[in-house]
Structure formats: structure tokens, C-alpha cells
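Quick one, C-alpha cells below. Sequence please?
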């Protein structure tokens, strides 16, 4: 089966997705233009003091890059108002990279991310991915604690002139990759990575 067909069929199985919290919270896939328009409306309320270098890539190269699999997901409340987002893309054929996510402050700390993430990962695994990566500012405690609780490990740190310092994290589907990660990088005196809750 062509990947595009598999993608459409799998999306139909997983989306729109019901989320916990107030009744009627959903996550749905949209196209890139809708995503950009909707996220622009709430971006400044989620990231109040973003300090990023302008990102103006070469148009032809950007178009080529956009041909890789990507996901644009809007989180909406029961009135259909956009209150958050998740966007990610293929990093390599093994790996899905969670590029950006955010919730308006009044929708945080209600378990939306902790319960939505395992379901989203099930979707990614069904598509064939074997790892998920993310990057976070070293002071973004909420994001990194959430990722650790969901079973991520620290993979590295990037110093990028566009985004500043970023801690890279990785999640593995299946015990084989996790065991190999721990064989190569583990410390005997520390406990092994716990299985994430509910998995
Ligand atoms: C990161 C973010 C998406 C988390 O979403 P959320 O739905 O609020 O997270 P949850 O309520 O599911 O929390 C899950 C766990 O994460 C941890 N966590 C969440 N917020 C936290 C905070 N402010 N401080 C410390 N830990 C936190 C907790 O361990 C929590 O579990 P617990 O409630 O059982 O203690 C949200 O805080 C957000 O939108 N932040 C601003 C944008 C952002 O930083 N995006 C990520 C960029 S990489």
C-alpha cells in the first residue's frame, strides 16, 4: 500500500480524537494553511516572550522539505475555539519529530498532554515509526517533566543560532531500541528507564 493511502486510512481511525477535560475537547488534523492561520491567532498567548531568529528559508528548498510526512493538529474546546496545537514531521524513516506544541494557559495542567500523547503515539506507531523525538529549551521544565513521565530519555543538546539552546529527547516504541539505548548509554548504578504509565 502506498504511504499516502495508509496515512489517510490511519488518520480516519484516530482523528478527530476526543480529549479529557471539559466536555467536547477534540484534536483534529488540518492542512498547513489552516494550521498557520489558527495558530498565529493564539501563539503570543502561549509563548509570551519567544526569542527566535527570523526563519525565512529558500522557497524552493522549503517546498521540497514539505513533501515529507507531517502532521498539523489543532486542539479545540467544545465551542470549536482553538486552544492549542501539535505540529510534527518525519525526521528520518524511523523517527517522527514533535516540532511544536502548546496550550493556552487556562487549558494547562488538566492532563490534556499526558493523556493525548499516548494516543497520538499509537497513531505514529501504526504509521510505522519506531522513535519520536522532541526538543525543549533547558528551562522548559513543564515540557521536559511531561516527556520524562511519558517515557522519553535525554538524547542530546543542540546549540542552534535560530532557536537557542535545545535539549533533545527521544521515545522508543518497543523494548529492543530502549534496551540498546541503555546498553550503550546507561549507568549501572541508576535504575533503568521506567515503562511509561499506562503503556
Ligand atoms: C508543555 C504543555 C503542552 C504541557 O501540557 P499540559 O496538558 O499542561 O500537561 P499535563 O497537564 O498533561 O501534565 C502532565 C505532567 O507534566 C508535568 N507538568 C505539567 N506542567 C508542569 C509544570 N508547570 N511544572 C512542572 N511539571 C509540569 C507534570 O508532571 C504533569 O503530571 P502531573 O499533573 O501528574 O503532575 C503545556 O504546559 C504548554 O502548553 N506549555 C507552554 C508551551 C510549551 O512549552 N510547549 C512545549 C514546547 S517544547
Amino acid at each position: 500500500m502506498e504511504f499516502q493511502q495508509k496515512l489517510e486510512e490511519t488518520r480516519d481511525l484516530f482523528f478527530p480524537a476526543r480529549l479529557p477535560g471539559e466536555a467536547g475537547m477534540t484534536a483534529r488534523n488540518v492542512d498547513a494553511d489552516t494550521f498557520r492561520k489558527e495558530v498565529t491567532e493564539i501563539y503570543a498567548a502561549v509563548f509570551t516572550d519567544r526569542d527566535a531568529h527570523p526563519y525565512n528559508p529558500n522557497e524552493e528548498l522549503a517546498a521540497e522539505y514539505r513533501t515529507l510526512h507531517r502532521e498539523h493538529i489543532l486542539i479545540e474546546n467544545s465551542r470549536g475555539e482553538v486552544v492549542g496545537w501539535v505540529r510534527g514531521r518525519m525526521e528520518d524513516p524511523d523517527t517522527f519529530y514533535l516540532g511544536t506544541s502548546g496550550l493556552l494557559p487556562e487549558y494547562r495542567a488538566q492532563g490534556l498532554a499526558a493523556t493525548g500523547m499516548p494516543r497520538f503515539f499509537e497513531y505514529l506507531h501504526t504509521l510505522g515509526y519506531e522513535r519520536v523525538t522532541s526538543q525543549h529549551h533547558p528551562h522548559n521544565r513543564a515540557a521536559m517533566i511531561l516527556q520524562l513521565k511519558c517515557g522519553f530519555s535525554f538524547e542530546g543538546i543542540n546549540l542552534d543560532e535560530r532557536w537557542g539552546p535545545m535539549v533533545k529527547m527521544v521515545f522508543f516504541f518497543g523494548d529492543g531500541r530502549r534496551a540498546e539505548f541503555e546498553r550503550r548509554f546507561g549507568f549501572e548504578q541508576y535504575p533503568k528507564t521506567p515503562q511509561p504509565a499506562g503503556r
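Helices lie at 3-14, 32-46, 59-65, 112-127, 141-149, 175-185. The chain has one domain: 14-185.
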